[in-house]
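Re: that backbone. Tokens:
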């Protein structure tokens, strides 16, 4: 638990300065609309790309942290065959359903907390 809290505190700093959980949720609403409706609306498409790009940027930041800090055990273990839609669904669902995630974390921290909840590493050693 200590490792998870340390890592989440590290990721409480925004991947994109000034980008909040509210901003992420707004963009992800548009992504959901884009996926469901297959819309060609450029405004919705831009928001949709912002959402998924932000999520992947946060995940890259987490991966970089663990590459540079080998004294910490990874707390997220994504399956090799995971899809963009699955990653989005995990983050979006957690943001919608978990008030604590929306209130407690920065946007990057919320991505990390959402993914860690769905894909924790096996900590039995």
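Recovered sequence:
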């Amino acid at each position: 638990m200590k490792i998870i809290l340390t890592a989440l505190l590290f990721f409480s700093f925004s991947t994109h300065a000034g980008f909040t959980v509210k901003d992420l949720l707004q963009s992800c609403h548009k992504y959901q609309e884009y996926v469901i409706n297959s819309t060609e609306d450029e405004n919705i498409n831009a928001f949709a790309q912002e959402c998924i790009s932000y999520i992947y940027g946060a995940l890259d930041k987490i991966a970089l942290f663990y590459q540079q800090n080998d004294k910490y055990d990874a707390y997220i273990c994504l399956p090799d065959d995971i899809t963009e839609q699955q990653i989005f669904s995990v983050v979006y669902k957690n943001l919608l359903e978990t008030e604590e995630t929306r209130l407690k974390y920065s946007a990057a921290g919320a991505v990390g907390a959402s993914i860690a909840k769905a894909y924790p590493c096996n900590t039995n050693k």
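Residues 1-15 have pLDDT under 50 and may be disordered. Helices lie at 2-10, 21-37, 42-68, 84-97, 99-104, 107-118.
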